[in-house]
Sequence to fold (151 residues):
Amino acid sequence: MENEKINIEDIMAEIKQKIKDQGLTADMLSFEDVPYKKTAQGGSASEALDYITSHYYIQPYKELKGNSVKVFIKKVIRKMVKFYVEPVVFEQNDFNANAVTVMKSLTDSKSSDLSGRVETLELANKELLMRLDKLERENNELRSRLSGENV
Fold:
């Protein structure tokens, strides 16, 4: 089996033939339509914060699998190292919970600061538009007076 070479062209031809046989076309499905589980990487900051918020807790032990002898031996080892593993994991969970709390508060305070700044800028913009409108009316009035004097 080691000496067998994988022929990519044959595999691709087989896949294309199956697609053709099923009558599928490229417009039927795009990558955006395919559901997938998102991770924290590659997303926005809010998506990453949502991921961290829901995954900050770490279990000290994973589920034991295998035959009964292996499971028994793993349980014995787990009991022997419990005093060492659990405090570290619980300490990490406390740190993670506090880190998430700080990140959320920073995000909330930043967004409230930004909303206050946006409100201030909108008021300033409204005032400037009113002043501009007033100046345009004054300018039109002065132009009409000047055109009346020149005639």
Observations:
- The first helix runs from residue 8 to 22.
- The mean pLDDT is 83.
